[in-house]
Fold these 3 entries.
Entry 1:
Amino acid sequence: MSSLVRNWRELFGRVTPEPESPAVGDVTLEARDITVERGGRHILEGVSIEVRAGEVVVLVGPNGAGKSTLLAALAGDQPVIAGRVDVEGTDLTQWSPIDMARRRAVLPKNTPSDFRSALARSFAWDVRPGPELAEQTATALLSLRR
Protein backbone atom coordinates (compact mmCIF):
# COMPACT_ATOMS: atom_id res chain seq x y z
CA MET A 1 0.00 0.00 0.00
CA SER A 2 1.43 3.38 -0.95
CA SER A 3 2.29 5.96 1.67
CA LEU A 4 -0.18 8.36 0.04
CA VAL A 5 -3.06 5.94 0.64
CA ARG A 6 -1.91 5.31 4.22
CA ASN A 7 -1.68 9.06 4.87
CA TRP A 8 -5.14 9.57 3.35
CA ARG A 9 -6.61 6.97 5.68
CA GLU A 10 -4.82 8.48 8.68
CA LEU A 11 -6.05 11.97 7.80
CA PHE A 12 -9.65 11.13 7.10
CA GLY A 13 -10.18 8.21 9.46
CA ARG A 14 -12.96 5.83 8.50
CA VAL A 15 -12.65 4.32 5.09
CA THR A 16 -15.92 2.93 3.81
CA PRO A 17 -15.79 -0.40 2.04
CA GLU A 18 -16.58 -0.50 -1.63
CA PRO A 19 -20.23 -1.31 -2.22
CA GLU A 20 -21.16 -4.73 -3.55
CA SER A 21 -22.38 -4.82 -7.12
CA PRO A 22 -26.15 -5.23 -7.27
CA ALA A 23 -27.63 -8.25 -9.00
CA VAL A 24 -29.22 -7.67 -12.38
CA GLY A 25 -32.81 -6.66 -11.77
CA ASP A 26 -32.26 -5.25 -8.27
CA VAL A 27 -33.80 -1.80 -7.73
CA THR A 28 -30.85 0.53 -7.29
CA LEU A 29 -32.57 3.90 -7.60
CA GLU A 30 -36.17 4.80 -6.87
CA ALA A 31 -38.06 8.07 -6.69
CA ARG A 32 -41.57 8.04 -5.26
CA ASP A 33 -43.95 10.93 -5.82
CA ILE A 34 -41.21 13.54 -5.75
CA THR A 35 -41.83 17.25 -6.06
CA VAL A 36 -39.04 19.66 -6.92
CA GLU A 37 -39.34 23.39 -6.66
CA ARG A 38 -37.19 26.09 -8.26
CA GLY A 39 -37.81 29.77 -7.85
CA GLY A 40 -41.08 29.14 -6.05
CA ARG A 41 -42.48 27.03 -8.93
CA HIS A 42 -43.07 23.30 -8.91
CA ILE A 43 -40.88 22.00 -11.73
CA LEU A 44 -41.68 18.35 -11.00
CA GLU A 45 -44.74 17.17 -9.12
CA GLY A 46 -45.65 13.61 -8.17
CA VAL A 47 -42.93 12.00 -10.30
CA SER A 48 -41.97 8.37 -9.69
CA ILE A 49 -39.33 6.22 -11.36
CA GLU A 50 -37.65 2.93 -10.58
CA VAL A 51 -34.26 1.97 -12.02
CA ARG A 52 -32.97 -1.58 -11.86
CA ALA A 53 -29.41 -2.84 -12.23
CA GLY A 54 -28.71 -3.80 -15.84
CA GLU A 55 -31.32 -1.46 -17.31
CA VAL A 56 -30.70 1.38 -19.68
CA VAL A 57 -33.06 4.27 -19.01
CA VAL A 58 -33.65 7.12 -21.44
CA LEU A 59 -35.40 10.37 -20.52
CA VAL A 60 -37.02 12.01 -23.51
CA GLY A 61 -39.09 15.16 -23.60
CA PRO A 62 -39.28 18.71 -24.89
CA ASN A 63 -37.13 21.54 -23.58
CA GLY A 64 -38.31 22.61 -20.15
CA ALA A 65 -40.07 19.32 -19.38
CA GLY A 66 -37.92 18.72 -16.28
CA LYS A 67 -35.49 16.05 -17.51
CA SER A 68 -32.39 17.76 -16.08
CA THR A 69 -34.23 18.64 -12.89
CA LEU A 70 -35.22 15.01 -12.41
CA LEU A 71 -31.64 13.83 -12.95
CA ALA A 72 -30.38 16.46 -10.49
CA ALA A 73 -32.92 15.31 -7.90
CA LEU A 74 -32.00 11.65 -8.43
CA ALA A 75 -28.31 12.50 -8.01
CA GLY A 76 -28.94 14.49 -4.84
CA ASP A 77 -27.91 17.78 -6.42
CA GLN A 78 -31.42 19.26 -6.29
CA PRO A 79 -33.49 19.10 -3.09
CA VAL A 80 -36.79 17.26 -3.15
CA ILE A 81 -39.55 19.09 -1.23
CA ALA A 82 -41.97 16.16 -1.22
CA GLY A 83 -41.66 12.46 -1.82
CA ARG A 84 -38.49 10.44 -1.48
CA VAL A 85 -35.48 9.29 -3.47
CA ASP A 86 -33.87 5.99 -2.41
CA VAL A 87 -30.50 4.64 -3.45
CA GLU A 88 -30.23 0.91 -2.80
CA GLY A 89 -33.25 1.13 -0.50
CA THR A 90 -31.88 3.96 1.68
CA ASP A 91 -33.09 7.56 1.58
CA LEU A 92 -30.73 9.65 -0.54
CA THR A 93 -30.29 12.18 2.27
CA GLN A 94 -28.83 9.48 4.55
CA TRP A 95 -25.81 8.76 2.33
CA SER A 96 -22.47 10.47 2.95
CA PRO A 97 -20.86 12.22 -0.02
CA ILE A 98 -18.16 9.54 -0.28
CA ASP A 99 -20.73 6.73 -0.21
CA MET A 100 -22.72 8.45 -2.96
CA ALA A 101 -19.55 8.98 -5.00
CA ARG A 102 -18.96 5.23 -4.86
CA ARG A 103 -22.43 4.55 -6.25
CA ARG A 104 -23.00 7.14 -8.94
CA ALA A 105 -21.21 9.56 -11.22
CA VAL A 106 -22.59 12.83 -12.50
CA LEU A 107 -21.51 14.79 -15.56
CA PRO A 108 -23.49 18.03 -15.58
CA LYS A 109 -24.57 19.47 -18.89
CA ASN A 110 -23.26 22.92 -17.94
CA THR A 111 -19.58 22.76 -17.13
CA PRO A 112 -17.41 25.74 -16.20
CA SER A 113 -15.57 27.34 -19.09
CA ASP A 114 -12.19 26.59 -17.52
CA PHE A 115 -13.07 22.88 -17.65
CA ARG A 116 -13.90 23.20 -21.36
CA SER A 117 -10.57 24.93 -21.92
CA ALA A 118 -8.69 22.21 -20.06
CA LEU A 119 -10.53 19.54 -22.03
CA ALA A 120 -9.73 21.23 -25.32
CA ARG A 121 -6.04 21.65 -24.37
CA SER A 122 -5.85 18.02 -23.27
CA PHE A 123 -7.52 16.80 -26.43
CA ALA A 124 -5.32 18.98 -28.61
CA TRP A 125 -2.21 17.61 -26.88
CA ASP A 126 -3.21 14.01 -27.63
CA VAL A 127 -4.03 14.49 -31.32
CA ARG A 128 -1.02 13.39 -33.36
CA PRO A 129 -1.59 14.32 -37.03
CA GLY A 130 -0.52 17.93 -36.56
CA PRO A 131 -1.19 21.24 -34.86
CA GLU A 132 -3.74 22.36 -37.47
CA LEU A 133 -6.00 19.37 -36.86
CA ALA A 134 -5.59 19.72 -33.09
CA GLU A 135 -6.57 23.39 -33.23
CA GLN A 136 -9.59 22.67 -35.44
CA THR A 137 -10.71 19.87 -33.13
CA ALA A 138 -10.31 22.03 -30.03
CA THR A 139 -12.27 24.84 -31.69
CA ALA A 140 -15.03 22.40 -32.64
CA LEU A 141 -15.21 21.09 -29.07
CA LEU A 142 -15.52 24.59 -27.66
CA SER A 143 -18.18 25.55 -30.19
CA LEU A 144 -20.38 22.69 -28.98
CA ARG A 145 -20.92 24.54 -25.70
CA ARG A 146 -21.77 27.93 -27.19
Note: The mean pLDDT is 79.
Entry 2:
Amino acid sequence: MTTKKRLKCFVACAFGSNEIDSLYSRVVRPTLRGLGIDSIRVDQVEHNDHIDRKIFQLIEECDLCIADLTFARPSVYFEAGFAEGKGKPVVYTVRKDHFKPREDDLAGNWKVHFDVDKKNIVAWSSSKDSSFATRLKRRLTLVSAPIKRSLSGQASLDQERKNFRSLSVAQQQSQVMRSVIRALAGRRYRFIRRKMFPIDDPNYPHWGSYGVVIFGRFRDPDAPLVSLEVDPPISDRYWTKIGNRLAYKGNLSGCSKLEGRSSMHLVVFTKPRSRSLLAQKLSRWRPMGDSCLQCNLSGESRKEGAVPTLAMISPVLSEKEFKIELSDVLNNLLPRR
Protein backbone atom coordinates (compact mmCIF):
# COMPACT_ATOMS: atom_id res chain seq x y z
CA MET A 1 0.00 0.00 0.00
CA THR A 2 1.60 3.27 -1.12
CA THR A 3 1.56 6.30 1.16
CA LYS A 4 -0.19 9.27 -0.39
CA LYS A 5 2.25 12.13 -0.80
CA ARG A 6 1.21 15.57 0.43
CA LEU A 7 1.96 18.52 -1.82
CA LYS A 8 4.30 21.24 -0.64
CA CYS A 9 3.79 24.96 -1.30
CA PHE A 10 6.58 27.49 -0.87
CA VAL A 11 5.20 30.84 0.29
CA ALA A 12 7.25 33.91 -0.67
CA CYS A 13 6.21 37.15 1.04
CA ALA A 14 7.49 40.18 2.89
CA PHE A 15 8.94 39.44 6.33
CA GLY A 16 8.56 41.65 9.40
CA SER A 17 5.03 42.81 8.55
CA ASN A 18 2.31 42.10 11.08
CA GLU A 19 -0.32 42.41 8.35
CA ILE A 20 1.39 39.82 6.10
CA ASP A 21 1.99 37.47 9.04
CA SER A 22 -1.67 37.73 10.02
CA LEU A 23 -2.81 37.06 6.44
CA TYR A 24 -0.56 34.01 6.30
CA SER A 25 -1.73 32.53 9.62
CA ARG A 26 -5.44 33.36 9.15
CA VAL A 27 -5.96 32.69 5.43
CA VAL A 28 -3.04 31.28 3.45
CA ARG A 29 -1.90 28.44 5.71
CA PRO A 30 -5.44 27.25 6.64
CA THR A 31 -6.47 27.31 2.97
CA LEU A 32 -3.47 25.21 1.99
CA ARG A 33 -4.03 22.81 4.86
CA GLY A 34 -7.66 22.37 3.86
CA LEU A 35 -6.49 21.29 0.39
CA GLY A 36 -4.02 18.80 1.82
CA ILE A 37 -1.00 20.99 1.01
CA ASP A 38 1.84 21.74 3.42
CA SER A 39 2.86 25.42 3.53
CA ILE A 40 6.51 26.40 3.86
CA ARG A 41 8.00 29.80 4.71
CA VAL A 42 11.77 29.97 4.87
CA ASP A 43 11.71 32.24 7.94
CA GLN A 44 9.78 29.52 9.80
CA VAL A 45 12.16 26.69 8.89
CA GLU A 46 14.95 25.90 11.35
CA HIS A 47 18.24 25.49 9.47
CA ASN A 48 21.95 26.19 9.68
CA ASP A 49 22.56 26.96 6.02
CA HIS A 50 23.12 29.99 3.84
CA ILE A 51 19.69 31.58 3.39
CA ASP A 52 19.90 31.65 -0.41
CA ARG A 53 20.89 27.96 -0.64
CA LYS A 54 18.06 27.07 1.73
CA ILE A 55 15.54 29.02 -0.38
CA PHE A 56 16.72 27.26 -3.54
CA GLN A 57 16.43 23.88 -1.81
CA LEU A 58 12.93 24.53 -0.50
CA ILE A 59 11.66 25.78 -3.86
CA GLU A 60 13.12 22.78 -5.69
CA GLU A 61 11.44 20.44 -3.19
CA CYS A 62 8.05 22.15 -3.41
CA ASP A 63 5.28 21.41 -5.91
CA LEU A 64 3.90 24.93 -6.26
CA CYS A 65 4.49 28.43 -4.95
CA ILE A 66 2.53 31.40 -3.63
CA ALA A 67 4.19 34.79 -4.12
CA ASP A 68 2.65 37.78 -2.36
CA LEU A 69 3.90 40.94 -4.08
CA THR A 70 2.80 43.35 -1.36
CA PHE A 71 5.53 45.94 -0.57
CA ALA A 72 7.41 44.86 -3.73
CA ARG A 73 10.13 42.93 -1.96
CA PRO A 74 12.90 42.10 -4.49
CA SER A 75 13.45 38.74 -2.81
CA VAL A 76 9.83 37.75 -3.48
CA TYR A 77 10.16 38.55 -7.19
CA PHE A 78 13.45 36.67 -7.30
CA GLU A 79 11.99 33.58 -5.59
CA ALA A 80 8.92 33.62 -7.85
CA GLY A 81 11.14 33.84 -10.93
CA PHE A 82 13.30 30.98 -9.68
CA ALA A 83 10.19 28.85 -9.06
CA GLU A 84 8.84 29.55 -12.56
CA GLY A 85 12.24 28.74 -14.03
CA LYS A 86 12.06 25.38 -12.27
CA GLY A 87 8.67 24.72 -13.82
CA LYS A 88 6.73 25.22 -10.58
CA PRO A 89 3.31 26.89 -10.91
CA VAL A 90 3.20 30.23 -9.07
CA VAL A 91 0.03 31.79 -7.65
CA TYR A 92 0.48 35.55 -7.30
CA THR A 93 -1.32 37.55 -4.60
CA VAL A 94 -1.13 41.21 -3.56
CA ARG A 95 -2.95 43.79 -1.47
CA LYS A 96 -5.51 45.45 -3.72
CA ASP A 97 -4.05 48.98 -3.37
CA HIS A 98 -0.90 47.86 -5.27
CA PHE A 99 -2.44 47.96 -8.74
CA LYS A 100 -2.25 51.75 -9.20
CA PRO A 101 0.87 53.90 -8.72
CA ARG A 102 1.13 56.53 -5.98
CA GLU A 103 2.57 59.96 -6.57
CA ASP A 104 4.60 59.80 -3.34
CA ASP A 105 5.91 56.26 -4.07
CA LEU A 106 9.11 57.15 -5.92
CA ALA A 107 10.73 53.81 -5.08
CA GLY A 108 7.79 51.82 -6.47
CA ASN A 109 7.19 49.84 -3.29
CA TRP A 110 3.40 50.25 -3.51
CA LYS A 111 2.88 49.09 -7.09
CA VAL A 112 3.10 45.68 -8.77
CA HIS A 113 6.00 45.72 -11.23
CA PHE A 114 5.03 46.10 -14.88
CA ASP A 115 6.49 42.73 -15.91
CA VAL A 116 4.02 40.78 -13.76
CA ASP A 117 1.04 43.11 -13.49
CA LYS A 118 -0.59 41.37 -16.48
CA LYS A 119 -0.78 38.09 -14.58
CA ASN A 120 -4.06 36.97 -13.03
CA ILE A 121 -3.20 38.13 -9.51
CA VAL A 122 -5.47 37.29 -6.57
CA ALA A 123 -6.03 40.51 -4.62
CA TRP A 124 -6.85 40.89 -0.93
CA SER A 125 -7.93 43.82 1.20
CA SER A 126 -7.09 42.68 4.74
CA SER A 127 -6.17 39.60 6.73
CA LYS A 128 -9.89 39.16 7.48
CA ASP A 129 -10.92 39.20 3.81
CA SER A 130 -13.18 36.12 3.53
CA SER A 131 -13.65 36.56 -0.23
CA PHE A 132 -9.87 36.33 -0.65
CA ALA A 133 -9.88 32.98 1.12
CA THR A 134 -12.55 31.72 -1.27
CA ARG A 135 -10.75 32.98 -4.38
CA LEU A 136 -7.38 31.69 -3.17
CA LYS A 137 -8.85 28.24 -2.53
CA ARG A 138 -10.41 28.19 -5.99
CA ARG A 139 -7.10 29.17 -7.63
CA LEU A 140 -5.05 26.68 -5.62
CA THR A 141 -7.54 23.92 -6.43
CA LEU A 142 -7.13 24.69 -10.14
CA VAL A 143 -3.34 24.80 -9.98
CA SER A 144 -2.87 21.73 -7.77
CA ALA A 145 -5.30 19.43 -9.61
CA PRO A 146 -2.92 18.40 -12.45
CA ILE A 147 -0.07 17.99 -9.95
CA LYS A 148 -2.19 15.64 -7.83
CA ARG A 149 -3.20 13.67 -10.91
CA SER A 150 0.43 13.32 -11.93
CA LEU A 151 1.48 12.20 -8.46
CA SER A 152 -1.42 9.76 -8.33
CA GLY A 153 -0.32 8.25 -11.64
CA GLN A 154 3.28 8.03 -10.46
CA ALA A 155 2.19 6.41 -7.20
CA SER A 156 0.21 3.84 -9.18
CA LEU A 157 3.20 3.19 -11.43
CA ASP A 158 5.52 2.80 -8.42
CA GLN A 159 3.11 0.26 -6.94
CA GLU A 160 3.02 -1.70 -10.21
CA ARG A 161 6.83 -1.77 -10.27
CA LYS A 162 6.93 -2.93 -6.68
CA ASN A 163 4.42 -5.68 -7.44
CA PHE A 164 6.47 -6.83 -10.44
CA ARG A 165 9.71 -6.90 -8.41
CA SER A 166 7.98 -9.01 -5.76
CA LEU A 167 7.35 -11.80 -8.30
CA SER A 168 9.73 -14.69 -8.70
CA VAL A 169 11.89 -14.82 -11.83
CA ALA A 170 9.67 -17.56 -13.26
CA GLN A 171 6.54 -15.48 -12.62
CA GLN A 172 8.11 -12.42 -14.24
CA GLN A 173 9.07 -14.42 -17.30
CA SER A 174 5.60 -15.93 -17.51
CA GLN A 175 4.03 -12.48 -17.35
CA VAL A 176 6.31 -11.26 -20.14
CA MET A 177 5.46 -14.29 -22.26
CA ARG A 178 1.71 -13.75 -21.85
CA SER A 179 2.04 -10.09 -22.82
CA VAL A 180 3.98 -10.96 -25.99
CA ILE A 181 1.51 -13.69 -26.99
CA ARG A 182 -1.43 -11.31 -26.61
CA ALA A 183 0.32 -8.53 -28.53
CA LEU A 184 1.24 -10.88 -31.39
CA ALA A 185 -2.26 -12.35 -31.45
CA GLY A 186 -3.53 -8.87 -32.23
CA ARG A 187 -1.34 -9.02 -35.35
CA ARG A 188 -2.65 -12.48 -36.31
CA TYR A 189 0.48 -14.28 -35.11
CA ARG A 190 0.27 -17.69 -33.47
CA PHE A 191 2.64 -20.13 -31.82
CA ILE A 192 4.54 -22.40 -34.24
CA ARG A 193 7.14 -24.24 -32.21
CA ARG A 194 9.67 -24.09 -29.41
CA LYS A 195 13.28 -24.57 -30.50
CA MET A 196 15.78 -25.75 -27.89
CA PHE A 197 19.41 -24.61 -28.05
CA PRO A 198 22.24 -26.24 -26.07
CA ILE A 199 24.01 -23.99 -23.58
CA ASP A 200 27.64 -24.59 -22.66
CA ASP A 201 27.75 -21.94 -19.95
CA PRO A 202 27.92 -23.52 -16.45
CA ASN A 203 27.28 -20.10 -14.90
CA TYR A 204 23.83 -19.97 -16.44
CA PRO A 205 21.17 -21.11 -13.92
CA HIS A 206 19.34 -23.24 -16.51
CA TRP A 207 22.51 -24.77 -17.91
CA GLY A 208 21.74 -27.54 -20.34
CA SER A 209 19.40 -26.13 -22.99
CA TYR A 210 17.44 -22.97 -23.64
CA GLY A 211 14.15 -22.60 -25.48
CA VAL A 212 13.31 -20.01 -28.12
CA VAL A 213 9.61 -19.60 -28.93
CA ILE A 214 8.74 -19.13 -32.62
CA PHE A 215 5.61 -17.35 -33.90
CA GLY A 216 4.23 -16.97 -37.42
CA ARG A 217 1.43 -14.92 -38.94
CA PHE A 218 -1.75 -16.91 -39.53
CA ARG A 219 -2.31 -17.72 -43.24
CA ASP A 220 0.47 -15.37 -44.36
CA PRO A 221 3.54 -17.35 -45.43
CA ASP A 222 5.40 -14.24 -46.58
CA ALA A 223 5.21 -12.49 -43.22
CA PRO A 224 8.39 -12.47 -41.12
CA LEU A 225 8.64 -14.93 -38.28
CA VAL A 226 8.98 -13.74 -34.68
CA SER A 227 11.26 -15.51 -32.24
CA LEU A 228 11.23 -14.69 -28.53
CA GLU A 229 13.80 -15.17 -25.79
CA VAL A 230 13.23 -14.15 -22.17
CA ASP A 231 16.34 -13.80 -19.97
CA PRO A 232 18.67 -15.75 -22.29
CA PRO A 233 22.34 -16.35 -21.38
CA ILE A 234 24.73 -13.58 -22.41
CA SER A 235 27.87 -15.63 -23.01
CA ASP A 236 29.87 -14.90 -26.16
CA ARG A 237 29.59 -18.47 -27.44
CA TYR A 238 25.81 -18.53 -27.11
CA TRP A 239 25.29 -15.21 -28.92
CA THR A 240 27.77 -16.13 -31.63
CA LYS A 241 25.70 -19.26 -32.23
CA ILE A 242 22.44 -17.28 -32.32
CA GLY A 243 23.95 -14.62 -34.60
CA ASN A 244 25.27 -17.24 -37.03
CA ARG A 245 21.92 -19.03 -37.24
CA LEU A 246 20.07 -15.76 -37.91
CA ALA A 247 22.60 -14.63 -40.49
CA TYR A 248 22.68 -17.89 -42.44
CA LYS A 249 19.17 -19.22 -41.96
CA GLY A 250 17.19 -15.99 -41.63
CA ASN A 251 15.40 -17.21 -38.50
CA LEU A 252 15.74 -19.58 -35.54
CA SER A 253 12.92 -21.97 -36.41
CA GLY A 254 15.25 -24.86 -37.22
CA CYS A 255 12.73 -25.95 -39.84
CA SER A 256 13.96 -26.49 -43.40
CA LYS A 257 10.61 -25.33 -44.82
CA LEU A 258 10.99 -21.98 -43.07
CA GLU A 259 14.62 -21.29 -43.93
CA GLY A 260 15.08 -18.02 -45.76
CA ARG A 261 12.10 -16.36 -44.12
CA SER A 262 12.94 -13.00 -42.59
CA SER A 263 12.41 -12.74 -38.87
CA MET A 264 12.34 -10.44 -35.88
CA HIS A 265 14.22 -11.81 -32.90
CA LEU A 266 12.84 -10.29 -29.71
CA VAL A 267 15.05 -10.48 -26.63
CA VAL A 268 13.58 -9.49 -23.26
CA PHE A 269 15.57 -9.17 -20.06
CA THR A 270 13.62 -8.83 -16.84
CA LYS A 271 16.81 -7.46 -15.24
CA PRO A 272 18.98 -4.60 -16.57
CA ARG A 273 21.23 -5.56 -19.46
CA SER A 274 23.28 -3.23 -21.65
CA ARG A 275 22.28 -2.92 -25.29
CA SER A 276 25.86 -2.01 -26.13
CA LEU A 277 26.98 -5.29 -24.50
CA LEU A 278 24.89 -7.32 -26.92
CA ALA A 279 25.92 -5.09 -29.81
CA GLN A 280 29.55 -5.93 -29.08
CA LYS A 281 28.74 -9.64 -29.09
CA LEU A 282 27.00 -9.34 -32.46
CA SER A 283 29.65 -7.76 -34.64
CA ARG A 284 27.73 -8.27 -37.87
CA TRP A 285 24.70 -6.35 -36.57
CA ARG A 286 24.36 -2.64 -37.17
CA PRO A 287 22.28 -0.23 -35.01
CA MET A 288 18.72 0.60 -36.02
CA GLY A 289 17.25 2.94 -33.40
CA ASP A 290 17.47 2.83 -29.63
CA SER A 291 16.19 -0.69 -29.08
CA CYS A 292 16.69 -2.46 -32.41
CA LEU A 293 19.62 -3.97 -34.32
CA GLN A 294 19.50 -5.11 -37.91
CA CYS A 295 21.71 -7.85 -39.24
CA ASN A 296 24.24 -6.81 -41.87
CA LEU A 297 24.11 -9.76 -44.24
CA SER A 298 26.44 -8.57 -47.01
CA GLY A 299 28.28 -11.61 -48.32
CA GLU A 300 27.12 -13.81 -45.44
CA SER A 301 23.55 -14.92 -45.96
CA ARG A 302 22.94 -18.12 -47.85
CA LYS A 303 19.30 -17.15 -48.25
CA GLU A 304 18.69 -14.06 -50.33
CA GLY A 305 16.15 -11.60 -49.03
CA ALA A 306 16.29 -12.84 -45.43
CA VAL A 307 16.98 -9.82 -43.23
CA PRO A 308 16.63 -10.71 -39.55
CA THR A 309 16.06 -7.90 -37.08
CA LEU A 310 16.88 -8.04 -33.39
CA ALA A 311 14.95 -5.98 -30.84
CA MET A 312 15.84 -5.86 -27.18
CA ILE A 313 13.78 -4.67 -24.20
CA SER A 314 15.66 -4.29 -20.93
CA PRO A 315 14.82 -4.12 -18.12
CA VAL A 316 11.15 -4.93 -17.57
CA LEU A 317 10.05 -2.56 -14.79
CA SER A 318 6.35 -3.38 -14.77
CA GLU A 319 3.83 -5.19 -16.95
CA LYS A 320 2.21 -1.90 -18.00
CA GLU A 321 5.49 -0.29 -19.09
CA PHE A 322 6.57 -3.45 -20.86
CA LYS A 323 3.36 -3.53 -22.90
CA ILE A 324 3.93 0.08 -24.00
CA GLU A 325 7.54 -0.55 -25.06
CA LEU A 326 6.59 -3.82 -26.73
CA SER A 327 3.85 -2.05 -28.69
CA ASP A 328 6.36 0.56 -29.90
CA VAL A 329 8.79 -2.14 -31.06
CA LEU A 330 6.10 -4.16 -32.85
CA ASN A 331 4.60 -1.07 -34.50
CA ASN A 332 8.04 -0.19 -35.81
CA LEU A 333 9.05 -3.64 -37.02
CA LEU A 334 5.77 -5.49 -37.54
CA PRO A 335 3.16 -3.06 -38.88
CA ARG A 336 -0.38 -4.39 -38.90
CA ARG A 337 -1.68 -5.68 -42.23
Note: Residues 91 and 140 are 7 Å apart (CA to CA).
Entry 3:
Amino acid sequence: MFYCESDNLVPDGLGHTDIFLRDTVAGTTELISANEAGTRANSFSRSPVISEDGRYIPYMSAATGLVSQATVGSNAYLYDRTTDETTLPSVAAPGAYCSRERDSDSLTTPQRLPSVTPSRPDRT
Protein backbone atom coordinates (compact mmCIF):
# COMPACT_ATOMS: atom_id res chain seq x y z
CA MET A 1 0.00 0.00 0.00
CA PHE A 2 1.47 3.32 -1.01
CA TYR A 3 0.69 6.69 -2.52
CA CYS A 4 2.78 8.55 -5.06
CA GLU A 5 2.75 11.21 -7.75
CA SER A 6 4.49 9.19 -10.48
CA ASP A 7 3.02 9.27 -13.99
CA ASN A 8 4.51 5.92 -14.99
CA LEU A 9 1.87 4.16 -12.86
CA VAL A 10 -1.07 6.30 -14.02
CA PRO A 11 -0.05 8.05 -17.25
CA ASP A 12 -1.98 11.31 -17.34
CA GLY A 13 0.39 13.80 -15.72
CA LEU A 14 -2.17 15.45 -13.43
CA GLY A 15 0.57 16.04 -10.87
CA HIS A 16 -1.12 14.80 -7.71
CA THR A 17 -0.79 11.72 -5.53
CA ASP A 18 -2.81 8.54 -5.99
CA ILE A 19 -3.30 5.45 -3.80
CA PHE A 20 -1.95 2.10 -5.06
CA LEU A 21 -1.91 -1.46 -3.77
CA ARG A 22 1.02 -3.63 -4.82
CA ASP A 23 0.56 -7.43 -4.83
CA THR A 24 4.10 -8.78 -4.68
CA VAL A 25 2.95 -12.37 -5.22
CA ALA A 26 0.95 -11.66 -8.41
CA GLY A 27 3.29 -8.86 -9.49
CA THR A 28 0.43 -6.40 -10.00
CA THR A 29 -0.21 -2.81 -8.95
CA GLU A 30 -3.83 -1.69 -8.49
CA LEU A 31 -5.07 1.91 -8.51
CA ILE A 32 -7.25 2.37 -5.41
CA SER A 33 -8.10 6.09 -5.66
CA ALA A 34 -10.54 5.78 -8.56
CA ASN A 35 -14.31 5.93 -8.99
CA GLU A 36 -16.64 3.07 -10.05
CA ALA A 37 -15.79 3.64 -13.73
CA GLY A 38 -12.07 3.36 -12.96
CA THR A 39 -11.44 7.07 -13.49
CA ARG A 40 -8.51 8.35 -11.48
CA ALA A 41 -9.15 10.82 -8.63
CA ASN A 42 -9.17 14.46 -9.78
CA SER A 43 -7.16 15.69 -6.78
CA PHE A 44 -4.66 14.38 -4.25
CA SER A 45 -5.22 11.16 -2.30
CA ARG A 46 -3.04 10.11 0.65
CA SER A 47 -2.75 8.44 4.06
CA PRO A 48 -3.87 4.92 3.05
CA VAL A 49 -3.98 2.05 5.51
CA ILE A 50 -5.27 -1.48 5.04
CA SER A 51 -7.36 -3.64 7.35
CA GLU A 52 -5.73 -6.69 8.86
CA ASP A 53 -7.69 -9.01 6.57
CA GLY A 54 -6.78 -6.92 3.50
CA ARG A 55 -10.40 -6.09 2.64
CA TYR A 56 -10.75 -2.41 3.59
CA ILE A 57 -8.58 0.54 2.58
CA PRO A 58 -9.48 3.85 4.21
CA TYR A 59 -7.70 6.93 2.86
CA MET A 60 -8.00 10.70 2.58
CA SER A 61 -8.65 12.57 -0.65
CA ALA A 62 -9.62 16.03 -1.86
CA ALA A 63 -11.08 14.52 -5.05
CA THR A 64 -14.70 15.30 -5.86
CA GLY A 65 -15.41 12.50 -8.35
CA LEU A 66 -14.80 9.36 -6.30
CA VAL A 67 -18.39 9.05 -5.02
CA SER A 68 -21.53 11.01 -5.83
CA GLN A 69 -21.86 12.68 -2.40
CA ALA A 70 -18.27 13.98 -2.14
CA THR A 71 -17.83 17.51 -0.81
CA VAL A 72 -15.18 20.15 -1.42
CA GLY A 73 -12.17 19.71 0.82
CA SER A 74 -10.49 16.64 2.19
CA ASN A 75 -12.74 13.65 2.89
CA ALA A 76 -12.22 10.20 4.37
CA TYR A 77 -12.98 7.43 1.87
CA LEU A 78 -13.29 3.69 2.39
CA TYR A 79 -12.54 1.26 -0.43
CA ASP A 80 -13.90 -2.29 -0.02
CA ARG A 81 -11.78 -4.73 -2.04
CA THR A 82 -14.44 -7.46 -1.84
CA THR A 83 -17.29 -5.38 -3.29
CA ASP A 84 -15.03 -3.06 -5.32
CA GLU A 85 -16.92 -0.07 -3.87
CA THR A 86 -15.74 3.23 -2.46
CA THR A 87 -17.87 4.92 0.18
CA LEU A 88 -17.69 8.20 2.06
CA PRO A 89 -17.81 7.37 5.79
CA SER A 90 -17.22 11.06 6.64
CA VAL A 91 -20.93 11.57 5.91
CA ALA A 92 -22.69 11.50 9.28
CA ALA A 93 -26.19 10.97 7.83
CA PRO A 94 -27.81 11.45 4.42
CA GLY A 95 -26.92 14.99 3.39
CA ALA A 96 -25.01 15.76 6.62
CA TYR A 97 -21.25 16.13 6.23
CA CYS A 98 -18.47 16.80 8.67
CA SER A 99 -18.40 20.53 9.32
CA ARG A 100 -14.64 21.06 9.25
CA GLU A 101 -11.55 19.79 7.48
CA ARG A 102 -10.51 16.34 8.65
CA ASP A 103 -6.96 15.75 9.88
CA SER A 104 -5.43 13.54 7.21
CA ASP A 105 -2.50 12.60 9.43
CA SER A 106 -4.75 10.98 12.03
CA LEU A 107 -6.96 8.79 9.85
CA THR A 108 -8.38 5.99 11.96
CA THR A 109 -10.57 3.01 11.23
CA PRO A 110 -14.28 3.70 10.84
CA GLN A 111 -16.04 2.34 13.94
CA ARG A 112 -17.80 -0.43 12.04
CA LEU A 113 -14.45 -2.04 11.19
CA PRO A 114 -12.65 -4.22 13.72
CA SER A 115 -9.16 -2.82 13.14
CA VAL A 116 -6.75 -1.41 10.63
CA THR A 117 -3.09 -2.27 10.87
CA PRO A 118 -0.08 -1.66 8.65
CA SER A 119 -0.03 -3.56 5.36
CA ARG A 120 0.18 -7.34 5.50
CA PRO A 121 3.45 -8.73 4.13
CA ASP A 122 1.60 -10.75 1.47
CA ARG A 123 -0.33 -7.68 0.25
CA THR A 124 2.27 -4.92 0.12
Note: The longest strand covers residues 18-23.
